[in-house]
Amino acid sequence: MGENHKKQVILESAKEIISENGLVKSNIAEIAKNAGVADSIIYHYFKNKEDLLFCVLGEQLKAVRKELLFHFEGIMGPVSKLGKMIWFHLAVSDLKYSNAKIMKNLLFECRANKNFYHHEGYQELRKYTGIMLGILKEGVSENYFRDDLNLNLIRDMIFGLLDEESVNCLASKEVEETSRDFESVMSLVLAMISKKNPNASSLSEESDKTSKILRAAISVFAEKGYNKATMLEIATRAGVAEGTIYEYFKNKKDLLFCIPKEQFRKFRDSLEKLNTSEHPDIKFRRMICNHFTLFMSDQKFLRIFLTDIKLNKEFYTSEAYDCYSTYYNDMLNALLEEGKKTGVFRSNINNRVFRNLYIGTFTHLAVRWFLLGKTTPMEMTEEFGQVTALLCRALASDPSLL
């Protein structure tokens, strides 16, 4: 048996055993016996059982990425590619795809282990999610998707939603096949990221252009400072001609002072709504704020929840899951139905799929914020505001009123 073949046999054996029993209940002796090799041979290729698990997932992800790229053959345009990737990801969660089920089980094991995020196997996961990021960038450059999006955040939200769909199928058993949710998933995703209706009024277009210039100015002023920033740089960042800026603003100073003017107007409007309205959109914003605050204020519990509970399949058959499910479902369903009844939210929203977007977004952000530790408090605050806006946009029957 050649060296490479022997290593592959060990990986196949580990894949079967760990996906079935979990990392804790699996042992090297069992894997070696199943592979037909001595225990010591495994340690020749892998440091330990954990390293073996991460390498198994890395190999699986390479194969999945290759298959996904094959599915892209003949697919034109970023919207179609996005749809194909989401469909592919949903389809491989379905129970009839036994090999995909194994991969999902391995993902549960790996993502629940903080050491995974520092292993080369994690880089394979990044390459897979990088395909999604590339599609989103293509969509922005070709004017299909909004150009004010934080694409890394959108990627996290989409994969968070898809992860929860997998949980529904493989752990909580709420659905038998996630591919049936494809249209509901695409509806939410496109509602968040698609360009505005091309038939929108000229007044709306003017407002959008002003917003683009203001966002670009904020970005350039923040990076270079007011004195060093130029109107040409701002125009380039906004995607407009330099002369266009002067159609809306007298000069650079006028543009600078219009930034707080616009921001404080938004703050005032937001506070007025909070104080006077029981609008479903406002209730939902409060719910998001309360949810993030409750979890983020106890980071020890959050870490345990993310690594030892949320990605533990046994959790989904426990009494604790009933409490967790009720916490989300009762409040969120009531709120969504109220919004639909009043016409504030779109009537065709699948409540369960939106719940998956909501929970999945929170889970992916929390992992990146606290397990990977690559996000500053200021960035967290900014991303929280963006997430709230995107989730509301996914629901809204008329995004222009947000």
From TrEMBL:
Residues 4-64, 207-267 form the HTH tetR-type domain. One of its GO terms (molecular function) is DNA binding. Residues 27-46, 230-249 bind DNA. Transmembrane segments: none annotated. Keywords: DNA-binding. It comes from the Bacteria. PANTHER family: ACREF/ENVCD OPERON REPRESSOR-RELATED, ACREF_ENVCD OPERON REPRESSOR-RELATED. This is Transcriptional regulator, TetR family. The lineage of its organism: Bacteria, Pseudomonadati, Thermodesulfobacteriota, Desulfobacteria, Desulfobacterales.
